[in-house]
Amino acid sequence: MTMPGWSADGRSEYRVGELRVMGDFPLGEGGSAQVWRCTTPDQVSVAFKRYDRDTVQQLQPGVLRELVGWPHRLDQDDRKRLLELCAWPHAVVVENRTVVGILMPLAPREFFFDTSSGPQPRAFTRVAVRVPDAQKRGHTYFDFPHKIARLGQLLVDLQFLHDNDIVVGDLQPNNILTTDARPVDGVVSAHNYFLDCDSFIIAGRAATPRLDPLPWRPPYPVEQFTATTDMFKFALLMIRCLAENLAANQLDYRQYTQLLPTGDFQKIDRLLTTPQPDLTSADLRALALAWQSVVRPDGRVYRRTDFALREPWNEHTRAAHFAEFAAAAPTGSPSAQGISPGVVVAVIAVVIVLLTIIIALA
């Protein structure tokens, strides 16, 4: 089966000299590769990820070729879903018989937003942006139910990948694109799109050198990326999105009682604190579906609490959430937060005693 939007002859290998690079600047650049827009001999527009010399030397070409062919192991429906969800490598690129890169599809237009300098990708980092920052940059703000719903969709996506023996490994928001929170043609469409899929682990094997940025590492030793390490990073992303701070490492769950049930946070806490959380796939799937349900396709928005499985999210409930948020957060140093009445009484008593002694000695 030919992959959607790809070469009609279904090739899985190209030579560098066959590709025509478009533009003077790469689409993206990282520590180990550059990504260029190019066209294949049959005029298909694709992205060419060319590795640097050190990465080429550390590549596992056999595993990379196996990863290219992985979608063909899936049934038709799962294959279609995988290719809609991921910028999956469609072919390896060789130079002098050495694998030096991959070809992958360009991200769909729905994952971009317009700017004065042209379309820009909407990374999942947008879900963690605060209101003032979103307004300053002219971006859509993801209100709290939208954050929860988008995280629920991401959890569904991860479950699908894990069910097909695929582990993301380097799971972080810069490697995921997401759709807008605003309705399009009256429908709120929550979809995600994974990038850097050549670093995915298939059946326990990795084709590229392992990337594990310090801000996203678990607090316990990790010999190999697994579904469990993906779930740790997902849980960390969840608390960072709710905290609206991508450097946060913990969350005072009491501040969010107007948004989610306590039991949900207990599950997230288990994912964060133990390498063997006692949560089944069914537990995670139920959590994901519950989170997805807080934003309906027609734009209606809800919240879930310990007292209501689904309650409308409106100006009243939003104000209640932020009131709880403000009440739980200290507003200054201890001295600026007021002195307890007991302390005041004690100070007055001491002053009276001192005055009595001074009068007696006079």
Can you describe this structure?
- By secondary structure, the protein is of the alpha+beta class.
- Helix 5 packs antiparallel against helix 6 and helix 6 crosses helix 7.
- The protein starts with 12 loop residues before the first strand and ends with a helix.
- 29% of the residues are buried.
- The C terminus is likely disordered.
List key phrases describing it.
362 residues; 3-stranded antiparallel sheet; 7-stranded mixed sheet; disordered C terminus; single chain
The number of helical elements comes to 10
Backbone structural class: alpha+beta
Biggest beta sheet summary: 7 strands, mixed
Q: Tell how many strands the DSSP assignment holds.
A: 16
What is the CA–CA distance across the termini? 106 Å
Give the helix/strand layout.
Elements lengths: L12 E3 L4 E3 L5 E2 L3 E7 L5 E7 L1 H6 L2 H9 L6 H10 L5 E5 L2 E7 L7 E2 L6 E2 L9 H7 L6 H20 L2 E2 L8 E3 L13 E3 L6 E2 L2 E2 L20 H17 L18 H12 L7 H12 L9 E2 L7 E2 L2 H14 L12 H21 L1
Parallel strand pairs: 1-6
Antiparallel strand pairs: 2-4, 3-4, 4-5, 5-7, 6-7, 8-9, 10-13, 11-12, 13-14, 15-16
Helix pairs in contact: 5-6, 5-8, 6-7
